[in-house]
Structures are given as structure tokens and as C-alpha cells.
Design goal:
Helix content: 55-70%
Radius of gyration: 26 Å
Distance between the termini: 47 Å
Largest sheet: none
Low-confidence stretches: none
Keywords: Membrane, Transmembrane, Transmembrane helix
Order of helices and strands: HHHH
Number of domains: 1
Strand content: under 5%
Number of helices: 4
Mean pLDDT: 82
Length: about 180
């Protein structure tokens, strides 16, 4: 683990983003639970919101536990649970995307035939933002990996000795006849 002190801006941004994510996921649980039987065209959308919110909040709790326990069985257990929840959340996002995007564009004029307007719009926006965030993380990760590889290859050319020198030498000198 890296124990370097973090800057105040980074800590503040992390706290603010965590608070916003908690509020959004609590709203997802609330909207999904409140309008559970008010989505006749796709009854899985409120269930999608409830499960997405619950799994995300549980994943955040395990993230906090993982950073709190640095060693031991609790650390390994929380890492395993967190990994499982991330895989499950990704699969659930794919399933939720198929439910949310399949009934797009919405028709709010017929109340009995469609979802509650706020519930559907919330599900649509959250799902879209999650895909955008994942795409940005993927693109940034690829760029950082490419830069790291290029830097390593470039630095490697300067670190490799040629046939006439060795590490630590200041100049090349032929060994004397008695030194061999």
C-alpha cells in the first residue's frame, strides 16, 4: 500500500464524489422501491434501480473496510466480496441497459402503458452516465498504459549497455594482461 500523504484537493474531491454517489444510489433505491409496480412496459426497471443502488452501496462499504484493514483475513474477505460485487454490478448494468434502452423513446402520455416518468428518466440517466464513466476510465487507462510502455521502451534504450561498456564504468579501458 502507498502511504504517502494525499493533497487536500484530492481528499476533498474524493469525499465529495463519495457523498454524491451515496445520495444517487439512495435515490435509486428509493425511486425503485416507491414505483415498484408502476412500470408495466418493463417491470424490471424499478428492480434494476433497487439492486443497482444496494450493490453499489455495499461495494462502497467493502471499499472502506478494505482500506481500514490492511492485513489479515478481513482484508482478504473484503477484497473478495468487493471483487464479486464489481463483477455482479457490471453484469447487472448490462442487464439494466437492455431493460432501460429497449423501451426508449418513452411515451408518457399513456399512464397505464409506461413507467413512472421520473423513475424511467433517472434509470436512463444513471445508466448512461455509468457507461460514459466506464468508457472514460477505459480510454484513460489505455492512454496511461501506452505512455508507460513508450516511456519504458525509451528509457530501456538508454539503460542497456553496449558491447564496449558495462554498468558503472566511466570510460572503456582494455584490461591489463595480468588482470585477466
Amino acid at each position: 500500500m502507498d502511504y504517502r500523504p494525499q493533497g487536500a484537493r484530492l481528499v476533498a474531491a474524493t469525499v465529495v464524489m463519495n457523498m454524491i454517489w451515496w445520495m444517487v444510489m439512495i435515490a435509486a433505491i428509493g425511486l425503485g422501491a416507491t414505483h415498484m409496480h408502476r412500470c408495466t412496459v418493463q417491470p424490471n426497471i424499478p428492480i434494476y434501480l433497487v439492486v443497482l443502488g444496494a450493490s453499489s452501496l455495499l461495494s462502497l462499504v467493502f471499499t472502506y473496510c478494505t482500506s481500514g484493514f490492511q492485513d489479515g483475513a478481513l482484508h482478504v474477505l473484503s477484497l473478495a466480496c468487493m471483487t464479486f460485487l464489481h463483477i455482479f454490478s457490471f453484469a447487472w448494468l448490462i442487464a439494466g441497459s437492455s431493460w432501460v434502452y429497449a423501451v426508449y423513446p418513452p411515451n408518457y402520455s399513456d399512464k397505464g402503458l409506461y413507467c413512472h416518468k421520473t423513475t424511467y428518466q433517472f434509470a436512463f440517466v444513471v445508466t448512461t452516465l455509468l457507461w460514459v464513466a466506464m468508457a472514460l476510465v477505459f480510454i484513460c487507462g489505455c492512454c496511461i498504459s501506452l505512455l508507460t510502455c513508450c516511456t519504458t521502451v525509451f528509457a530501456g534504450r538508454h539503460l542497456l549497455p553496449d558491447r564496449k561498456s558495462f554498468y558503472g564504468a566511466t570510460s572503456f579501458q582494455e584490461p591489463a594482461a595480468g588482470d585477466v
